[in-house]
Design brief:
By secondary structure, the chain is of the alpha+beta class. The chain contains twelve helices and 17 strands. The N terminus is likely disordered. It binds glyoxylic acid and manganese (II) ion (MN) (2 copies).
Length: 419
């Protein structure tokens, strides 16, 4: 694809409207610790209601699919053509930021508004998809809505149970979904022309380099493990150090090993222990059990396999040294997803149309695009995250950068429409 197919009289993003909607969504579920729109929570439902209203105001028909995804649709001028899909998510991690996912959704709706303002009807229908539980904070099942659309649900999704014991089956109806009809959420490749997602980078490359636009070359792979350490709870004051079976001491060594595997050893790009449950979690009791969440990420799947070997080897060593039992269970292994050269070029051309400098970079975060790429050509546009901060309340992208990203999204849609 080249800019020679660039449409004339292209519509323009309304930056004030875009940023005002983004700010309003950013007030929904915000508290002193950040954004609390964890999927299926009351705040998530409020956020979903807000964006559904924006879709209707932009003239879209709105429906909820069996996975709880919100799908807004604006018909094109040629009813025989498949839909161009724009999407992202409005759920957040606990104490998350205002822009992760939200920008992609609000910008997608703004694209439809801007086309309407400009009196421009694309040939293709445009669908805006707001995907359920992208973060996977709830039920520990991420990309839940986008994987349903791509037909990638696994047995674990159907059987998912939240930490409080509630099942996904019982929870999906809260947002209009229905697990028994989940197969109906799946879209056939013939129904879709392509998928375009705008997202904040969530890393430092664009901000540091002064680039307004990033063209995503691929999305990282991720492997997630549950590590269960069972020692023996005992009195913190009376148990001699040599007789302890301290699950916390073992957990600390594993946490440092995860850092070493990705850090000094460079076995894979990054490794994180992001969660830990300590039992009984009392100051004067030696922890009898610790459960931790470990993840590794890399674009090369061989590196993720090597990191797993190293994690399991360390767990055996630590179990022996600390006289505890350690079970490492692989929970998820999400493959990396390359973005095709054609789709990268589409975004580069769209940035060129807007006169914006761009740089190519891989995504270290996961995105709904990686699931949707299984059924239709997908591309992603990144805009700078100030200081590379994300999944935290200090997450910030400047209004001008958000508007630039939305304009590139709009241009990419028009280029794809002209194919
Ligand atoms: C999703 O936000 C991720 O953890 O990459
Ligand atoms: Mn996101
Ligand atoms: Mn996120």
């Amino acid at each position: 694809m080249s800019t020679s197919s660039a449409p004339t009289g292209s519509a323009a993003i309304n930056s004030v409207r875009l940023n005002s909607h983004l700010t309003t969504l950013g007030q929904i579920g915000r508290d002193e610790f950040g954004m609390q729109r964890v999927a299926f929570s009351r705040h998530d439902v409020d956020g979903r209601d807000y964006v559904s209203g924006l879709m209707r105001a932009a003239g879209m028909s709105v429906r909820i699919d069996p996975a709880g995804n919100i799908i807004g649709r604006s018909e094109g001028s040629d009813p025989s053509l498949p839909a161009i899909v724009l999407g992202s998510h409005t759920d957040t991690v606990p104490s998350g930021g205002q822009y992760d996912g939200a920008l992609g959704v609000i910008a997608a709706i703004e694209v439809v508004e801007a086309l309407r303002d400009g009196g421009q009807t694309p040939r293709h229908p445009v669908e805006v998809m707001v995907f359920t539980n992208e973060e996977g904070t709830s039920f520990h099942r991420w990309l839940l809505g986008s994987r349903a659309v791509a037909g990638l649900w696994e047995a674990e999704d159907f059987a998912a149970v939240a930490d409080d014991g509630v099942t996904l089956t019982d929870t999906l109806p809260d947002i209009g979904g229905n697990i028994s009809r989940i197969a109906d959420a799946r879209r056939r490749p013939e129904e879709l022309a392509c998928y375009l997602e705008l997202h904040i980078e969530q890393g430092p490359t664009l901000h540091r380099g002064g680039f307004p636009i990033g063209v995503v070359t691929g999305i990282t792979g991720r492997s997630v493990y549950h590590v269960d350490i069972v020692g023996e709870a005992n009195h913190a004051g009376t148990t001699p150090m040599s007789l302890r079976r301290d699950a916390m001491s073992a957990a600390a060594q594993i946490a440092l090993a995860v850092r070493r595997i990705a850090g000094e050893m460079e076995v894979c790009r990054v490794g994180t222990v992001g969660s830990m449950d300590v039992h009984p979690n009392a100051g004067n009791v030696i922890p009898g059990r610790v459960q931790m969440g470990v993840e590794f990420r890399d674009e090369r799947m061989e590196s993720l396999s090597a990191a797993e070997v190293e994690l399991r080897r360390t767990a055996e060593e630590v179990a022996h040294a600390e006289n505890v039992n350690i079970t490492v269970t692989a929970q998820r292994n999400t493959p990396s997803v390359p973005i095709s050269n054609n789709m990268q070029q589409l975004i580069a051309d769209a940035a060129g149309m807007a006169g914006l400098e761009q740089v190519s970079l891989p995504s270290g975060a996961g995105h709904d695009a990686q699931a949707i790429a299984a059924i239709t050509p997908a591309a992603m546009v990144f805009v700078p995250s100030v200081n590379g901060i994300s999944h935290a309340p200090a997450e910030y992208s400047a209004p001008e950068d958000c508007a630039n990203g939305a304009q590139v999204l709009l241009n990419a849609l028009l280029l794809a429409d002209g194919r």
